[in-house]
Specification:
The structure is a homodimer. Chain A is of the alpha+beta class. In chain A, 35% of the residues lie in helices and 21% in strands. In chain A, the strands form four sheets. In chain A, strands 12, 13, 14, 15, 16, 17, 18 and 19 form an eight-stranded antiparallel beta sheet that branches. In chain A, strands 5-6-10-8-9 form a five-stranded antiparallel beta sheet.
């Protein structure tokens, strides 16, 4: 393999672009949660698209596989090597230039290694926003965000990462560069090739740069915290708010009382409203004045009709942040509650109440003394239906099966926003139809016939 | 071929599902503008997805091609047979059921043959909207809208048809049904297969039904008509309005003085503002009160700074409609002005002013006594750069070449929203890179190896 390593070293102009010492490689070969760990011949950190292309040609020539990696913040092991083929970890983290901003056209062009937070900051500096928000945005990269079609709390209003991508530069499996870095908001000239690479987790091509859509910045921001009796009432509230306030509703999060109590035990603070089985955190944002008043007024009818129990509206950015702190610490509080089996599922929004009931029943029926920790982006049907109390990996599998069987009954998704990676490859095969699995395999074989790109991820072909 | 016709007739349960008399076939075999005309063995009008699947299997078995057609409102001959292979015209117009509406989840499920206007009405009846608008929406079908990734005047705010599609049911080239009719707003479980069929004009599969995203309805609507000196000033205005009013800016259209004068000569009416080289029609819509006042106030600074000359704000729906009538009659007025060579191009929004200048210069340099009729969705970079005065098809080719050469300099699109169809197949090959053309051909061969679906369209493979 020395000949491969020599070629890789020669392909990258900077000495910081090549790592082969185990200690230095370690941060790239383990995921941040310590769930996945892999092996690689070396870590290559190209500094340009041309260097990425060279590396792909080398990998292709020597029949070595490549594992692309951005900020290494994934939750499904998509950026950690797996399997027995010799692999090179290809980190894009040196490609971190913001290439261009078009304020009138609302576009920003960034390289794959740019950290999302930095790109959002650059947009903010010109009075615009990149409208996507998720927990790891301080270290997640643009390339990873696109490759996993990341979701987050604002998908309800702005869609997922896919909806932000106007153009892509991609290195294909044979080392040719697909230059689709166009900044066009309308383009139906032929097949929309970039769509292939969004959400395919680096298995069909390596994203090196992107043109992203920006959105105007909302001058007003305001949150409501609402006590409710059931998930069904939450949907009724969502319908009402869409009817009165329109699409300024940017986030609509559901949390169970047990989840909130765990957070309060961990970080202190207090419940903004009277206690109830469930809570909704709703955020509204727009440019028109008196948003607080409009949100308050919109909550009167639901209070009077009795399908919400209590409500508080943030009167300052501080208060808004206090509400969000309760939501944002759900994951941390769960971690302190011990071992958890996580499910990142989605069902149709109208099916959320029945899904929550049936999934809780399914967990109860296991008689394994488990606790459900359910919370999430109910406005877009994405529930983190996590289960506490499993004692072993064997138990995890049973729990997983039980939840995913309920998801299947609703024709839902077993991966709403965290991707398949290496973690859910088997589950994906089970959850999709034969037609879908075959079409995915057809695409993989058509675009990466030598199976050079991210083997063992997403599709079950290695 | 009688055996094929017998099989087709037997595949469709209703007698109205089969047409083979020339007079009855004629409306299906000619496009509405009279530009394209083709031949077919018969017209098949299946009543269900299963019947579509049967027809595809028959076509595949007998080596006959299929040309899918929706409302037959296309502008590029995508739904008209071409070439010499025996073909069956497959009209989806009998599949016109709206299957489901989820008001809380903002989704609507409709069959391919549904007319867009009917789907928009159904959404409106539950207080929501399907946020896409274009001239032919009274006869265009959902299937056609998706297959061409239609754009229109609201893409600035809501994106194109692609951004509305959450799930698709598709019949593949071998007659298997890809059931991806999921109503999920977040789903990263494997490759997003539906993206392949959006915008590929029926060449990779036949869309039979879709789940579309709805949006909240805006209670307030208001338009501004603005006189300006240059396209650059229009962009400055767009930036300013995005900065002050946010994303309630739903449409931002640019029209030249010559174009407007042609409309006024045709339909009467008057200019709402003082005359100037260019005009902008901007529409804002949201749920907050006093939108007229907010739009008026937002226009004060540009007037004072001198980069807009004059402005009028609609104070009623009637007045709003009067503004739009000027814009909506651009096409009709152009028709009355004689032969025109149409270009449906897009460039980056920031490049629009330079594009307009350079394209006008290129047309002037031809010394063919031509007039430019430029108007369009400048907010999303999509200009209908039409040229009047060409005297022959040979002249058309020269004009086309001149405009598309300028588009190429800006790395723009030769088909922003009207598609490739049969009209621009050669142009597409010329305008895309070798890598892009090869990847498109790879996809076509992978998904439709027998070339059964819509031969001679989009990709240059027949």
């Amino acid at each position: 393999m020395n000949v491969v390593l020599d070629a890789v070293r020669a392909a990258i102009s900077s000495p910081v672009g090549y790592i082969d010492q185990p200690n230095d490689m370690s941060p790239y070969l383990n995921d941040w949660r310590g769930m996945f760990s892999g092996d690689a011949l070396c870590v290559a950190r190209p500094g340009s698209t041309e260097e990425v292309a060279r590396l792909v040609r080398i990998a292709s020539e020597y029949n070595v596989a490549l594992v692309p990696q951005g900020g290494n913040t994934g939750l499904a092991g998509g950026a950690t090597p797996t399997g027995t083929r010799p692999q090179i970890l290809l980190s894009l983290n040196r490609m971190s230039q913001i290439r261009k901003i078009d304020r009138a056209g609302l576009t920003i062009t960034a390289e794959a290694g740019c950290i999302l937070h930095a790109v959002k900051q650059a947009a903010k500096e010109v009075g615009r926003q990149v409208p996507i928000s998720f927990a790891s945005e301080g270290s997640a990269s643009i390339g990873g965000m696109i490759s996993t079609n990341a979701g987050g709390v604002n998908a309800l209003r702005y869609g997922t990462a896919r909806h932000l991508v106007l153009g892509l530069e991609v290195v294909l499996s044979d080392g040719t560069v697909l230059n689709g870095l166009r900044n066009l908001r309308k383009d139906v000239a032929g097949y929309d090739l970039k769509q292939l690479f969004i959400g395919s987790e680096g298995t069909l091509g390596i994203v090196t740069a992107a043109v992203l859509r920006m959105a105007p910045l909302s001058h007003q921001r305001c949150a409501g915290f609402v006590s409710i009796n059931s998930a069904g009432d939450a949907l009724r509230l969502l319908e009402h708010l869409h009817g009165t306030l329109g699409d300024c509703i940017g986030a609509f999060e559901l949390m169970s009382d047990a989840s909130i109590q765990r957070v309060i035990r961990l970080i202190g603070g207090r419940l903004p409203t009277s206690s109830a089985p469930w809570y909704v955190l709703v955020e509204a944002a727009d440019c028109a004045p008196e948003l607080e008043t409009r949100l308050q007024e919109a909550l009167i009818a639901p209070l009077e009709a009795g399908y919400i129990e209590d409500a508080a509206v943030s009167m300052s950015l501080n208060e808004l942040q206090e509400f969000w702190t309760l939501r944002e610490n759900m994951g941390e509080a769960e971690k302190h509650a011990g071992r958890s089996v996580k499910h990142d599922v989605a069902v149709g929004v109208c099916d959320v109440p029945r899904f929550l009931e049936e999934a809780a029943t399914a967990i109860g029926n296991l008689r394994m003394d488990l606790d459900v920790n359910a919370f999430g982006h109910v406005g877009d049907g994405n529930i983190h239906f996590n289960v506490l109390g499993s004692r072993s990996k064997a138990d995890d599998v049973v729990v997983n099966r039980a939840v995913h069987d309920v998801v299947a009954r609703f024709d839902g998704s077993i991966a709403a926003e965290h991707g398949i990676g290496q973690y859910r490859v088997e589950e994906l095969l089970l959850s999709k139809s034969r037609v879908e699995n075959e079409l995915m395999a057809t695409l993989k074989r058509a675009l990466d016939p030598a199976l050079t790109l991210n083997p063992g991820k997403v599709v079950g072909i290695v």
